[in-house]
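#structure-requests
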Amino acid sequence: MGWWSTNQLAALAGTTERAIRHYHHVGLLAQPERRANGYKRYGVTHLVRVLRIKRLTGLGLSLAQIAELGDADEHPEKALRALDSELAESIERMRRARADLAVILDQAAPTDLPPELGRALADAGAPATERSMGVVLSQVLGPAPLGAYVETLRTCGSEPTLAEFDALPANADERTRQDLAERMLETPSVRKMLTAFPTFEDTSADSPHGAEFALNAITRAVAELYNPAQIDVLVRMNC
């Protein structure tokens, strides 16, 4: 009388017999005495222990963390404060994720780009090559040049010479390439972009991966995304 079976303990604690057996297996719950017939006899101390385990796991502590607390877990302040800090960080990550999702959903922005850059490219009607270039730049540029890139996209709009550049065939003759380079240099938005990005070396100076890595990545992206005539126009514009 006054003792509980495994089934009764599980029912009282609002858990399962399997969970009780697992707590025994991992050393979180002491084995109870047994009756003469071999059945386990659980008491109040076992119920209290199981309820504490449930409460702490419900708060977010793992069984391994609870095991580290030992028997002094009635009010594990240090572990709970550490958990609170982790939860605060998780909430902040989720807040930022929701903010990004709001931009993506509202602006139909691509998911492979930072929201602000994706929105700027979408608003500018950028072609697939420019979007792909934007993906590379978003990974290798520091905050300042990337912000300048976003700002220039916002001011470019549907610039006719940029549309010509996107449609320039690989076999465009010298006169066509030179003429396009000159007209692009006369375009205010293009001049602004060149001011913000005078050379690849300058834009990669504060790259999170280092200047050399950024320069190699941008150079490789240009070679892959643009045809020889387009690359020649870019070279002429930067001469």
